[in-house]
Design a protein that fits this description.
- With 272 residues, the protein is α/β, with parallel strands linked by helices.
- Helices cover 50% and strands 12% of the residues.
- The protein is built from 13 helices and 8 strands.
Length: 272
Amino acid sequence: MNKRGNFIVIEGIDGSGKSTQTKLLSDFLSQNGHHIILKKYPEYGKPIGDLINNWLYSKDYDFNVEAQTLLYFADFIKDKEYLENNLKNGKIILSDRYFTSTMVYQRIKGMPMSKLNILAQTFGLIKPDKVIYLRISPETSFERKLQQKELDRHEGDKKFLNVLFNNFEKTAVSDGADELDIVINIPDVIHGRWSKIEKDLKAICRLQDTKVIIGSGFLTDDDIAKASQIVKKAGAICVKTATEKDPLENRELKEKKYLSCLLGSSRSIANY
């Protein structure tokens, strides 16, 4: 009998990199011998997904919150047997968005959480094994989305993006996130936007225990020193020096001992 597979969902506000990271994770797992099923919701190109797409980009008509909720649920329900069968056969399902997004969006619009939970139970939605939340600021989201030719009814609304961001943050904690791992905004470090970095990190560290990857392979020693001090000041529980994407020729210079001297013993240091 096959070992049951895993259902992994990548969530976040618009422009957070969900599609990119889903594809990168899929490629990595495939290269390591795993059978991957990719999903994306709403599923444009299919009847229900196209109806949602038309509503998102059209100003000719609107749906009330109940109709919106049922449309998104219908998009999930159509795949229930397909997802379950693939999980039983040991496959890994990676999905760009799922129930969490619908929960956050529709709750903002006035749909009670109690009703959303009742619908999920009534329809027997498959529960993900892991939900990964990609965090970017609403300002960054808006800047990225402005590069597109056409925005949907949510992406061009800065006020809504701020509300959306705050609700995703609260949901991440209330749904059981016990630790946050983040990569510092490396362009901000390179351009010396230290006040912005500190403000962003403090906001995150207030939510939950946080580990911060500073991307040392991309930075000068002075940048590493400054970034590490700000991470400590923001209240993070750990500094991670680098990711596997950091330039290897530079990573050798960024040793744990160096950071330990900077930060003292009150914070843990991790090399990757």
